[in-house]
Amino acid sequence: MSRKFTDKIKGIVMNNLVKNSGLAVIALATLNLSGCKHHPAGANAATGLSDGTGAQAYALAEGKGYQGQLKKDSEGRIINPLVAPANQTYYFDFDSTQLRSLDLGAIRVQANYLATHSTAKVRLEGNTDNRGSREYNIGLGWRRDQAVARILEQEGVAPKQIDMVSYGKERPAVMGNNENAWRLNRRVNLIYEAY
């Protein structure tokens, strides 16, 4: 909407203020809210974030736009956005340390951020479902941490930027003894401790 046109409409609305004050107030508020969109210099068209914010600089830009890169869980919540820095959760199959291919891109985005921000630091928290002994699950959680750390390090992240802890089955994300609960508990949480 051009500024000249917007100013003309505002003038008409103000002239009619006496006649229809309630309607004029609503119309004026709508015009103010629908003004021209402002994009700061250097803003990313896909995310709208300006250069140097971290999120824009590390978003994957394979022509899809940021919205096309979002993954959602079964309830429609956005998971593992392909921007950094962002705390994330990576899920594993039963008794496995193999990362899922859909998480590799998200891990690489975090690795890119960490590799270029030497003071940034993450904590990897390995978790398992409640099946198996405490000792076995602590070890499995640790091996899952190592699987994520290995990719981060292959992408140039310094080992001193990564802390690892295994909680095994001690900190479930979901309580329950069914496949859905077990699936959500087999995970590694990537948590930023410093940016």
In short, what is this structure?
Pfam families: OmpA. The chain is α+β, with helices and mostly antiparallel strands and 195 residues long.
What structural class do you assign from the helix and strand content? Answer: alpha+beta
Would you count the extended β strands for me?
Answer: 6
Q: Give a short account of the largest sheet.
A: 4 strands, mixed
Low-confidence stretches: 16-68
First-to-last CA distance:
40 Å
Strand content: 15-25%
* CATH fold naming of the largest domain: 60s Ribosomal Protein L30, Chain: A
Question: With helices defined by DSSP (H or I, 4 residues minimum), what is the helix count?
Answer: 7
Q: So, the CATH homologous superfamily of the largest domain?
A: OmpA-like domain
Can you give the mean pLDDT? 76
CATH class of the largest domain: Alpha Beta
Pfam family, one: OmpA
Subcellular location: Cell outer membrane
Function: Part of the Tol-Pal system, which plays a role in outer membrane invagination during cell division and is important for maintaining outer membrane integrity.
Domain OmpA-like: 79-195
